[in-house]
Design brief:
17% of the residues lie in helices and 42% in strands. The protein is built from three helices and nine strands; from the N terminus they run ββββββαβββαα.
Length: 159
């Protein structure tokens, strides 16, 4: 295996990079649902839909970091978490540079399901029935498998 690997940029385009240039991050994301809706945010830079969450700070516990990220992005408080998936992503992040990110995905239970003040990303509850009409290119690629799996559990067809 050579010293060059492929990673995507903020727009999902693939580029070749020297693998020695990559740093490592850990990120956690929360999947909040009810029987009819899924909580999604619209990312500020890429404008793609994603699950709330993000990079865990070095001094934080993973769950503590997930709760902080979730509250920062949605104003909602996470009460309970259950890990549902994990993965990795090679990514040229706009502020972090080249990173290999270890991704952890959790189902979350919220204290309150009412969106209060959303100041950074757009936050919305998407109806599962309407969800299947979304163009999947609008959704950040790292979330495709987690969301598809949740759709199967809810018996919602994406096609």
């Amino acid at each position: 295996m050579g010293n060059t690997i492929k990673a995507r940029d903020i727009n999902g385009n693939s580029h070749s990079y020297n693998k020695d240039e990559f740093g490592i991050t850990v990120s956690a994301y929360g999947l909040a649902t009810d029987s009819k809706k899924l909580l999604l945010i619209r990312e500020k830079v890429s404008k793609k839909l994603s699950l709330p969450g993000g990079e865990i700070n070095f001094e934080e516990d993973i769950i503590e970091g997930l709760k902080r990220e979730f509250k920062e992005e949605t104003s909602l408080e996470v009460l309970e978490t259950k890990i549902i998936d994990a993965g990795t992503d090679l990514f040229n992040h706009p502020t972090l540079g080249l990173v290999k990110s270890y991704l952890l995905f959790y189902c979350v239970v919220l204290k309150d399901y009412k969106i209060m003040n959303t100041y950074e990303p757009d936050v919305s509850w998407v109806d599962w029935v309407l969800f299947k009409t979304l163009d999947f290119t609008q959704i950040h690629s790292i979330f495709h498998n987690v969301i598809k799996s949740e759709c199967l559990k809810k018996k919602v067809s994406l096609f």
